């Protein structure tokens, strides 16, 4: 098996925390998933989708100085470190960290992820830390068919925390960890079966991610249509502007059934308006994916309940999902 053939194992979304003695629980860090391979000479980085990232994170070359005596393949999450992040043990994470600060860290690492050969200024402004949770190969021996608990033992045996690498801790009490991470504005937790082998993709039932979700009410201000089908809903909240325009807060593409989407399409085509109901959005701002997409604006009549994970620095919802219509 070659490094480039490895497909990352991905946790499956789940609403509740699975419980039992055969589960481990870890903090879910909001960063960029990265596989890191050292062949004995140089480091190579890939995203979970296989895209090269070696030049984006030159700091990880420092790992060869401490762990360069053999070959290895690590799996983890790259985050932008901050002053409050001294450990991944919840008691060390201060509770004065706001949702905006946690969300901003993701966009800082996203800036790093989109910058090849970053300058020294960028390295200093957005320093990264590699949160490692799995070891897939050591000394040319593949471990993907070994149980998770053994891979964890080998990870802790061959690696230790330093300036750039930090091994994510595992906990036995998932419900307590979920509650603590909610209080401290983490994205959520990941539950892993202790005997799970490393499955490619999501074809398994052994790793789950349970996110902390927030809810709000929003108005439907329009839809994006492609090939006569609704692709996403444009969401807004009532603003304080004199013209009663909506504040645009993002678009949602999931949550409704096909039947509901068909009914909404009929409503939208019958009730379309020529002008945008958003005070802070124009057709130019929408950045449509291709020429086949079009916008149907609506007056703010329909109210929706929306679940989401956080806010972007620009004031849009992260990962919005339509939870239902409010009658």
From TrEMBL:
EC number: 6.5.1.1
Keyword entries, A-Z: Ligase
InterPro entries from the UniProt entry: ATP-dep_DNA_ligase, DNA_ligase_ATP-dep_C, DNA_ligase_ATP-dep_cent, NA-bd_OB-fold
UniProt-listed Gene3D superfamilies: DNA ligase/mRNA capping enzyme (3.30.470.30), Nucleic acid-binding proteins (2.40.50.140)
Name of the molecule in the record: DNA ligase (ATP)
PANTHER family per the UniProt record, alphabetical: DNA LIGASE 1, DNA LIGASE 1/3 FAMILY MEMBER
tRNA-binding listed as a keyword: no
ATP-dependent DNA ligase family profile domain span: 132-211
Listed PROSITE patterns: DNA_LIGASE_A3
Superkingdom classification of source: Bacteria
CDD domains listed in its UniProt record: Adenylation_DNA_ligase_LigD_LigC (cd07906)
Keyword Ligase tagged: yes
Recorded family membership: Belongs to the ATP-dependent DNA ligase family.
Catalytic reaction list: ATP + (deoxyribonucleotide)n-3'-hydroxyl + 5'-phospho-(deoxyribonucleotide)m = (deoxyribonucleotide)n+m + AMP + diphosphate
SUPFAM superfamilies: DNA ligase/mRNA capping enzyme, catalytic domain (SSF56091), Nucleic acid-binding proteins (SSF50249)
